[in-house]
Amino acid sequence: NQLAEKPPTSLVSQIIEQIVNVLVLLLIGATIVAVVFNNDWKSAFWITLIVAGNAILGIWQDRSAESKMRALKRLTAPNARVVRSGKIVEIPANQVVVGDVIALSDGNIVPADARIIEAHNLQVLEAQLTGESVPVSKSASLISSQKAVGDRRNMAFMGTHVVYGRGMAVVVSTGMKTAIGQIARAINEVEEEDTPLQERMGQLAKGLVYGSLVMVVLSVVVGTILGADFRELMLTAVSMAVAIVPEALPAVITVTLALGAQRMVKRNALPRALKAAETLGSVTRACADKTGTLTTGQLSAVEIHAGDGLYAVSGVGYSVEGEVTKNGARLASPSRDLALLLQAAMIVNDASLDEEKGIIGDPTEGALLVMCEKAGLGIALRNATHRLYEVPFDSARKRMSVVVANEGAVKQSAEGGYLLFSKGAPEILLERCASALVDGAVVLVEEVRESVLATNTSLAKEGKRVLGFAYRVLSDAPAEGADEELESNLIWLGMTAMIDAPRASVITAVKQLRRAGVEVVMVTGDHPETALYIARQLKIATNERQRVVTGVELDEMSDEHLLGIVDSVAVFARVSPQHKQRIVFALQKAGHFVAMTGDGVNDAPALKKADIGVAMGITGTDVAKEAAGLILTDDNFATIVAATEEGRIIFNNVRKYLKYILGSNIGELIVLALAPLFGLRIPLIPVQILYMNLCTDGLPALALGVDPADTDVMADKPFAKGEGVFSRGMGSYIIRVGLVFGAMSVAFMLFANAIAPDVVMPDGSVQPGAWSSMVFTMLCLSQMGHALTCRSAEKSIFQLGLKTNPWLLRAVVVTSAIQVLLLYVPFVADFFNLQPLTLEQMLICLIASSALFIYVEVEKLILRRRKDDKTRREREAE
C-alpha cells in the first residue's frame, strides 16, 4: 500500500541530451575539420572547451530532483487502525490490504480507498482531491461508483483527513490503484514538454545549421571552381561554421532567465526552474482552479435573511474585519429578529476562533462565528451559555439542535425554562417549523414558506451555501430519545448565505490578462452552479463566453468534439485530475500555450502537463508545488499578471540579443564567404571569431538581458504556437541589417587591403598586412553601436536615454577597451594573430564602425515618420 516512484534521469542521459544538439554537432564537426585539414589544435581546443562549458551549464540548469512522488508520499498515513482477529490494532499503513476493515475517527488520515460501512456524523475533508473547501459528510448508503470523487459519499479516499465523527470502512483499493495513486501515475506518465523558448531556440538552431551548411557548400564549390587552395577552403568552412553559431547564446539565455527570475521573486513569483521564468510570457490560456486560487479558500457569510429584512455582511475569510449593514447603513444594534438568528448561529456551533490558528473546527461553523463577531455578538455569549442537551448533526436529518437555559443574555420568555436552537438545510428545517418570526411578531409559517424556499433556491443557484435557523421555548427539560418531538413546532428565524469569496484582486487580474491576449478558464472540482457564479463575478464568464462543461459531459465527449468547443468554454466543473489533463491537452492541441494554476493534489498532473504550472506557495500542497514550474509566494492570482509581464520582458530581451548577434554574424559570414573570391586570405581565423561571439557579443548581450521594457508589453498579443522567433519583422530585420553590414564590411575590407596589404617578401613568403587586423577591429567596434540600437525596434537610443540601461553602456565601454588591449598587448596580439594599428588606421576603423549604427538609427527614424503619417491620416479620416 505505497506509491511507486519514477526513476530520475541519469547523468549519462543528460550528457547525451546536451551533445545531441544540431548546433553542438556543427561545432564538433568544425573541430574535426580544423584538426584534420588545418592542424589547428588551438581552435579545436577552444571550440571543445566552449562545447563542454555549455553542456555543463545545461546539465546544471536541468538537474533537479524529481521529488513530486516524495511529496505525495508525505500525504499518506504512516499508520492505520484496522480490525485483525476481531480486534482493532494499529499497523503501518503500507501493510493495509484490500478487504481490511479500518477504523476512522477525528484527526485520522485515511490510509487507503475504502467503502464506508458505518458512519456516525463522519465528515472528511477532500479538498486536496476535489478542490472543495467544505468537509464532505459520509454515509454508508449505496452510491454509484461512476460518480465523480466529490459525489461519492460512501467512500473515503487515501490521504484525505477525517475532521469530525467516526466510522468503519472496508478497503477496496491500495497503493497505485487508489484515487491518489491514479494521480501519482498521471504525474509519472506526463512527459516534460519543451518550453516555448526551448521550442523556438530549437527552430533557430536548425535554421542556423541549414543556412551555414548551404553557405559553406556554396563557398567551397565556388572556391574550387575558381582554383582556390583546398586547405584555405577548409579554413573558410571552419570559420563560417564557427561564425554562424552564437556560442554565447546558452550563457546569455541562462543569465537573462536568472535575472528575470530574480525580478519575479521580488514580485512574489518564484520560478522553480530558470526555463519557467520566460514561459508565462507566451501563455494564451490560463486555467485556474477555483478554491484557494480564484477564491480565498475560506467560507464567508455574505447575507443574512432575517424576519425583518436582508442584511449584508462585508469582509472576506476568517478575519473579523468587516461589518453587518442593512440598506447600506451600518448596524448599530441588532433587532430581535436578527439577535435571535445570531444567537442560534453562535450557540448551535462547535467551532472556535484562535488568533494564531484561525478557525478550529468545521469551516461553515467558523464562518458563522466570524459573522456573529462582525455583528457585535461576541463568542463570550456562547461561553457563558451552558449547553444542556444536544441533538447532533446527521447527514440524513441535515440539522443539529442545542438546548440551553432560558436565562441571561439569551432569555426569550417569562414562561419556559429552556430554549432550543436549531440549524440545518432550510428546506428540511422549514418542515419542522409551525410559525415564523417576522418583524418581531410570530406568524404562521405558511405565510413565509414560498418566499423562503424561493430565496433558498436562488441563493443555491448563485453557488452559496445556505443554512436555516429556528428556535423554540421549552417548558420542560428534554428527555433522551425524544429528539423528533423535540425538533417540532419550531419558530423559523431566517437564513444565512455563505460563499468561498472571490479574491478582490482577481477581477482586475482577469481584465489585465484579457487585455494582454490571455483568457482565463476556470477548471474546478466544485459544483457547476457554484463555479459559474464565481466565474461571472470574476468576469471569466462573459456574454460571449459562458459555457459550462462538467466532468460527466467530458466523459461522454470525443476528443474531436472537445477540441471544437474548448475555446468557447469558460468553466469546467466537477472534473477529476484526468479531466484536467485532458482539458490542458485539448487547449494545447488548439494552438495555445497553457498555464495551469492550482494548490491541491488533484491539480498536480495538470500542473505538470501544462506549458507552465503555477502553484500557491502558502496554501498549496507540497505535491502541487513540486509539479509546478512557478510558485506564487503570496497565493495571489493577480501576481500572475506581474509574472506574465516579466516573462514577456525576458523573451523580448532574448529577441533583442538575437537581433544583435545574428545581424552581426551575417555580416561576418559575408566577409568570410567573399574574401577568397576577391583573392584575399581569410581575414578572420576561428579563434578570433570565437572571441567575437563570446566576448564582443557576450557582454553587451548580457546587458541587453536586463534591459527595461521600451513599450507596454502587456498591450501586445502573446506569441502564438508556431510563431517562430523570427516573426513580427525580426527575420527581415536580421537579413536586411546583415546584408547592409556585410556590404559595408566587404567594402571596408577592400579599402583596408588597399592601404595596408600583405607584403610578398623576396624569398616568396608573405608578410601579413594590417588590413585583416583592421577588419577584425572594425567588425568588433561596429557591433558595439549595433548593440545600442537593438534596445528598441522603433525608438532611437537618444529617446530611450543611455542612463535607462547603464549596464549596456558599461559593457560597450569595457568591450571597446578590451579590443584596444588585444591590439597593443604583444602576447595577446600574438595569440589572436593581430597586428597593432597606427593612429590613422585606428581612426579609420572608428569612423567605419559607426556606419552600421547610423544606418539602423536612420531606418528607425523613417519607420517612426511613416507610423506618424499613418496615424495622422487615420485621425483625419475620422
Q: Which structural traits does this protein have?
A:
30 strands, 878 residues, 8-stranded mixed β-sheet, elongated, 19% strand
SSE topology:
Blueprint: H1 11-19, H2 22-38, H3 41-62, H4 68-75, E1 79-84, E2 87-92, E3 101-105, E4 113-125, H5 127-130, E5 136-137, E6 155-156, E7 161-173, H6 179-189, H7 196-225, H8 230-244, H9 249-266, E8 269-271, H10 276-279, E9 285-288, H11 290-294, E10 295-306, E11 309-313, E12 324-326, E13 329-330, H12 336-347, E14 352-354, E15 358-360, H13 363-374, H14 380-383, E16 387-394, E17 399-405, E18 418-424, H15 426-431, E19 433-438, E20 441-444, H16 449-461, E21 465-474, H17 483-486, E22 490-502, H18 506-515, E23 519-523, H19 528-537, E24 547-550, H20 551-555, H21 559-565, E25 569-573, H22 577-589, E26 594-598, H23 604-609, E27 612-616, H24 622-627, E28 630-632, H25 639-674, H26 686-696, H27 698-704, H28 730-755, E29 759-760, E30 766-767, H29 771-789, H30 797-800, H31 806-824, H32 826-831, H33 839-877
Helix pairs in contact: 1-3, 2-3, 2-8, 7-8, 7-25, 8-25, 8-26, 9-25, 9-27, 12-13, 25-27, 25-28, 25-29, 27-31, 28-29, 28-33, 29-31, 29-33
Mean pLDDT across residues: 83
N-to-C terminal Cα separation, in Å?
A: 72 Å
Broad structural category: alpha+beta
The overall strand count is: 30
Question: What share of residues are in beta strands?
Answer: 15-25%
Largest sheet: 11 strands, mixed
**Poorly predicted spans:** 64-69
Q: Tell me the helix content.
A: 40-55%
Q: Which descriptor suits the 3D outline?
A: elongated
SS field, number of helical segments: 33
